[in-house]
Amino acid sequence: MKRDGYAIGLRAAMAVGYAFLYVPLVCVVVYSFNASRLVTVWGGFSTKWYGALFANGPILEAARRSFAIAAMAATGAVLIGTLAALALSRKPPPRGQGALSLLVAAPLVMPEVILGLSALLLFVGMQQAVGWPAGRGMATIAIAHVTFCSCYATVVVRARLAQLDPALGEAAMDLGARPLAVFFRITLPLIAPALVAGWLLSFTLSLDDLVVASFTSGPGSSTLPMLIYSKVKLGVTPEMNALATIVIGVVAVFVAIAAWMLRQREPVAHDSVARNVRPGAGSK
Amino acid sequence: MTAASYLRLEGVRKRFADVVAVDDVSLDIVQGEFFALLGGSGSGKSTLLRMLAGLERPDAGRILIDGVDVTAMPPYERPVNLMFQSYALFPHLSVRENIAFGLRQQGLPRDRREARVAEMLKLVRLEKLGERRPDQLSGGQRQRVALARALAREPKILLLDEPLGALDRRLREQTQFELMNVQRRVGTTFIVVTHDQDEAMTMATRVAVMDGGRIVQVATPPELYENPATRLVASFIGDANQFVGKVESVAGGTVAVASPDLGISLRATAREPVAVGTEVAVAVRPEKIDVREQAPEAADNVLRGAVVQIAYLGDISLYHVRTSGGAIVRVQETHAERSSDPHYAVGDELHLVWPAASALVLTA
Amino acid sequence: MNRARWLVTAVPLAWLGVFFLLPFLVVVAMSLAPPAPPGHSPLPAPGELLRSWAANGLDWRHYGALFSDSLYASAYLNSLLFAGVSTLACLVLGYPLAYGIARAKPAARAVLLLLVVLPFWTSSLLRNYALIGILKGNGLLNQVLLATGIVDRPAEILHTDLAVYIGIVYGYLPFMVLPLAATLMRLDFTLLEAAADLGARPFDAFWRVTWPLSRPGVIAGSLLVFVPAVGEFVVPDLLGGPRALTIGRVIWTEFFSNRDWARAAAVAVGVLVLVALPLLWFERRGERGDAAT
After folding, report:
1. pLDDT by residue (tens digit) across C125-169?
2. Are residues C36 and C89 in the same domain?
3. Would the CB atoms of A283 and B136 count as touching at under 8 Å?
4. Which residues on adjacent β-strands are paired with residue C185?
5. What is the pTM of this model?
6. Fewer beta carbons below 10 Å: N end or C end of chain C?
7. Which domain holds residue A204?
8. Do the chains contact at B76 and A178, CB–CB below 8 Å?
9. Per the CB < 8 Å rule, is C117 touching A255?
10. What is the helix (H) or strand (E) element at residue C186, kind and residue range?
11. Residues C270 and C133 placed together within one structural domain of the fold
């Protein structure tokens, strides 16, 4: 009987945890359809804030800009992060591996404000010294984002590389593949899921970043988070509810797709035991 | 062995940090052999195999395959293929694509490639499973895919790293004979690494026993069993009672050894001349000892003792007999006739008898 | 071939060297720079800087200010306090969540995990905005408190330290739950049955078996929460009161409001030495420890 007590307690604690995570999101979604300008008063169902959002030129412009930066940053971060992960998992350690592992770990513990400030000072200094970059804008934001996102991408790709059986690469070499062929025919297909995950993570981090972008942007290159920040600072802005609802909706759809794909792959992922028991079950 | 050497190792050496994994190994293997490298973990057998595959570079020595020095040749240029212990099947490729991997790397045209894959699938009886992914196969099926993949390129030598290690016992016995069949049909030289002496004895035409990075003995299975070179080989291959003592007298090939444990003098055969006074061991296999209830009239070696333990194994029984001196001797009796009564019981007093020819003097 | 091999290390090393390491040298130089003459760029040119240093020595006045003005010391302490307490709160709230996820059936487990991750993928700014709506004077929380009679007039929550704690926990809870759940999923639950068989009551079994075995997850999760929370800017800025000063806010204010680049740089160097380097050392030590086992 005591056992049931623990089970009920555990369920209650879980319910509190999930409620904590989701009540604010649900509120935002509900209020986004509120006709009243007052966030606390229900004034009937309306989609007018969505209309207002899509009529808001600066927001749309900033959103477009943020997506472009995020796509650039994610692509660059995955490229650099993959190289770094390969260099870090190579045995015997290549020259510079120690330095690289330090440089990859450091941005992860660095406060964003410092990352932003130091990137800005670098860009200003470079402009004064060599004339590039001429002013700040999307390019400088993207460079700064590539820098810290690549460290996260490294972590993701490196974890996947660590799971790979080193015998696979040896087997490919034994079957006549040169190192470059081993990379493209064996390593790359096998770490592809991690590249996708690293890209999505970098994209999200870039799209979400306020601080680094604030330091490294120039006039007329405000990103979506910068715009949201200034609006939230000013107070009640019902369009934000609509924007948040759209973001939540898009993410939920993506997560649902990911969940569905995971489900499809489930039998493959937990393969060997089940397959050995019933060898006929896996035919496609 | 009169045939020309097909694979030759000359003074091959490899050390990792401060461990010498392979120490001055020289070896000649003839074309078409089914050769086994047998040893415990850390004996250097796997490192030796990896050096043959080109996955490790020897620190010293040379490796020649069919007269060509391949010591510095990278794995992707060597005319050998390795079947990995974990099989190392590419999880993102189908069975067919796995087998075709090395052929594509060779640049074989598509039709010849497909024909070769079909031939290989037939060889390992997996014609129907070509489109499956490795994770949709049973352990035995994976093993066969790994074999087919390694053989597809028609290597001069096929290296097999513990080929049966990942299979359960029943499947292992069946697969042993399958491997031998395949080897006979394709005629490729096989070199298999194993820690299982039964496996090596069953499959191989010749076996090299390795210990501490060195090759202790190279011989055919019967030779290895009946004429072990060292005490280690004698106890590693099959079971052997070993009694330590000093040589008392030498008469031709027969030697008398005083055993302090048994309190008697043992008569045994020496393959090489030994000097009186040398510290040696006398090895006698349990099945070579005869059990009598009555003392025999004349025999080279007779021991008296009492049964202390009986292990009934169906086809045979194994007795532990304690001699008056306190030493335990293992004796084996074959059950040639059906009978549910054991021949002897714990406590029975017995005479153990064996001729000098059945006992071997080992100096190392 | 060897060149390609070399590039794999060299490209990321060069990128991070130029865009991460070099900026720090600029920050350090900036923090020691003399005041810029009016009309000049706040960032002195390297040659100019070296000449000034050669003539007058390094300019330590900003570091002096870090010690003399209690604002900075309290910002450092505030940051550590906010991060520490929030990490503890995340652990208390997140452990049962992770435990429940680990013990759920595999199908339910996948869904529960995704539900924990989902908020992370949405915008953190918008989530803070959502929290403002709940915490403010006439927000949902106060309405519930009033309706249930716990308070008789709206409690002041938004723009207090409490709001900062709630905000950090809300934002970083997933980072605590994920590594914890991963560790607990690997835990062999027959160990608990063995403990029970050996006479341990459920609480003892938890305290003597589950908790010690889940410690790697606790440490990993705590680091993932604590490290970014120390430098957090958005949460204290949007949810905290004007006195909820953190190092993130101080650097931001020095830079954007006071336009004192050199002071901002000096604060940043202080953070680097006092917070970031110890954390980096701690993390790498942990990493090496993991590799050794």
Report:
1. 999 999 998 898 888 888 888 888 888 888 888 899 999 999 999
2. no
3. yes
4. none
5. 0.87
6. C
7. 54-245
8. yes
9. yes
10. helix C161-186
11. yes
